[in-house]
């Protein structure tokens, strides 16, 4: 693959994947969806979920993004971030370029012993003569002040400091669209008539950062994640398509939306977890080292028995998660082992899969043997094993990476993001 396709696949893991097809806008049937394809440096890449069937604004956005990438002789992650933020949220390139300069300065200034979490809100307001101090000028001072998650610095569009404010808990509303829970109250600012925010930048003491704002290309503006940098890797987000990808892969069930929200929270909190959707019901007791973990429905412990209702079946066998039980499911995912469910509900909690390479199906056996030729971590091995058996695995690592193991063009692919 060329540098550009590798960069796109890394920054948009839920959108751009290499494909064996080469026509510009060829549409093929894959499972229950169509794949929109693009050419980058003469190589075909495709969306993991179709783009062209959504609103025209979104299709045009990706046309512009691909055109921009192809037009550059050399390109960096920062170039793509600048273009993506301009296209997805309307942030002008000058503002984005200045933001990247600011991030570079923050990286230089950062001292983990004293560096705070900085929450910056960039507004469309213009600074007056009383607001002539830029954030860059004040970095040394600000880096010695500890800020809580509710305190933010309001900046003008020319990056002058307007004020330091606090989001009051009684007015904060968590109506954000798939963002880590910590940042959800900032959605309140975007609904306020008193402020005109463009986007928010949350720079963490460990160097991770999150850019959030209103996306405007899906026909329904929402405060959402636009981009993030974790472990020095940039990722860009189209949350609407990512959520639809989860809907499709989890059999169009509401569980997809619930799991995406839980995964974001666990990732931001640096808690590891693993959940497996056994859609073909091919994971049996012989695949589990601790088969008692599968006795969720018949367990004599009333607490464990009640947990079987966390993921419950409706008459149409569409899985759903009650809002009041989301935290319990989140806690279950952090236990040693994995959580396994299928279309009939929760099957096991804390299961340890017995990794085997022998299988009645020789194609599956060959895949298992090729997978386990290298040393893998426990969750990673369990995820690949479950996927080879026909399941779908969602893994959250303690370093914050979310990995989605699924099938794509009859192959196991891993979509890593956040």
Description:
- A hairpin with a 2-residue loop joins strand 15 and strand 16.
- Residues 21-33 have low confidence and may be disordered.
- The protein is globular.
- The protein has 3 domains: 3-74, no CATH class; 83-244, YojJ-like (1 (3-Layer(aba) Sandwich), CATH 3.40.1700; 253-417, YojJ-like (1 (3-Layer(aba) Sandwich), CATH 3.40.1700.
- It has a 7-stranded mixed β-sheet with strand order 7-6-5-8-9-10-11.
- Helix content is 31%, strand content 24%.
- The protein has 418 residues and is α+β, with helices and mostly antiparallel strands.
- It has 12 helices and 19 strands.
- Helix 2 (56-71) packs antiparallel against helix 3 (77-89), helix 4 (93-109) packs parallel to helix 5 (135-142) and helix 8 (255-268) crosses helix 10 (326-333).
- Helix proportion: 25-40%
Main sheet, how many strands, which sense, barrel? Answer: 7 strands, mixed
So, the CATH homologous superfamily of the largest domain?
Answer: DNA integrity scanning protein, DisA, N-terminal domain
Overall structural domain count: 3
**Poorly predicted segments:** 21-33
Shape: globular
CATH topology of the largest domain: YojJ-like (1
Mean pLDDT: 79
Helix/strand/pairing class, anyone? alpha+beta
- In whole angstroms, the N-to-C terminal distance is 23 Å
Fraction of residues in β-strands: 15-25%
Number of E strands: 19
Strand order of the largest sheet: 7-6-5-8-9-10-11
Which short descriptors sum up this protein?
single chain; 418 residues; alpha+beta; YojJ-like (1; 3 domains; seven-stranded mixed sheet; six-stranded mixed sheet; 24% strand
């Amino acid at each position: 693959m060329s540098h550009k396709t590798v960069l796109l696949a890394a920054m948009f893991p839920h959108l751009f994947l290499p494909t064996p097809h080469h026509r510009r806008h060829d549409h093929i049937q894959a499972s229950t969806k169509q794949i929109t394809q693009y050419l980058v440096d003469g190589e075909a890449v495709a969306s993991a979920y179709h783009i062209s069937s959504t609103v025209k604004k979104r299709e045009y956005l990706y046309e512009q993004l691909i055109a921009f990438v192809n037009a550059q002789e050399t390109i960096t992650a920062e170039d793509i971030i600048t273009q993506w933020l301009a296209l997805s949220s309307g942030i002008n390139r000058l503002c984005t370029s200045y933001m990247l300069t600011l991030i570079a300065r923050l990286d230089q200034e950062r001292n983990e012993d004293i560096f705070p979490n900085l929450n910056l809100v960039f507004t469309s307001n213009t600074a007056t003569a009383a607001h002539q101090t830029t954030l860059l000028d004040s970095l040394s001072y600000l880096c010695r002040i500890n800020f809580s998650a509710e305190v933010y610095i309001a900046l003008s569009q020319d990056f002058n400091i307007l004020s330091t404010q606090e989001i009051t808990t009684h007015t904060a509303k968590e109506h954000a669209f798939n963002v880590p829970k910590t940042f959800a109250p900032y959605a309140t600012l975007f609904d306020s008539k008193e402020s005109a925010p463009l986007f928010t930048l949350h720079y963490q003491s460990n160097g991770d950062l999150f850019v959030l704002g209103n996306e405007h290309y899906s026909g329904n503006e929402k405060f959402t994640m636009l981009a993030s940098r974790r472990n020095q890797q940039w990722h860009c987000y189209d949350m609407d398509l990512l959520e639809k990808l989860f809907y499709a892969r989890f059999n169009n069930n509401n569980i997809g939306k619930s799991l995406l929200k839980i995964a974001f929270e666990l990732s931001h909190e640096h808690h590891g977890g693993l959940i497996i959707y056994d859609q073909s019901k091919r994971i049996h007791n012989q695949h589990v080292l601790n088969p008692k973990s599968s006795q969720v429905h018949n367990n004599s412990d009333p607490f464990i028995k009640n947990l079987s209702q966390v993921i419950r079946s409706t008459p149409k066998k569409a899985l759903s998660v009650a809002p009041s039980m989301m935290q319990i499911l989140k806690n279950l995912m952090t236990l040693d082992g994995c959580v396994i469910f299928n279309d009939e509900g929760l099957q096991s909690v804390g299961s340890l899969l017995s990794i085997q390479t022998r299988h009645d199906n020789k194609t599956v056996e060959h895949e298992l043997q090729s997978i386990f030729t290298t040393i893998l971590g426990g969750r990673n091995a369990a995820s690949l094993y479950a996927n080879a058996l026909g399941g779908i695995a969602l893994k959250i690592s303690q370093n914050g990476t979310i990995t989605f193991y699924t099938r794509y063009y009859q192959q196991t692919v891993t979509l890593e993001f956040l």
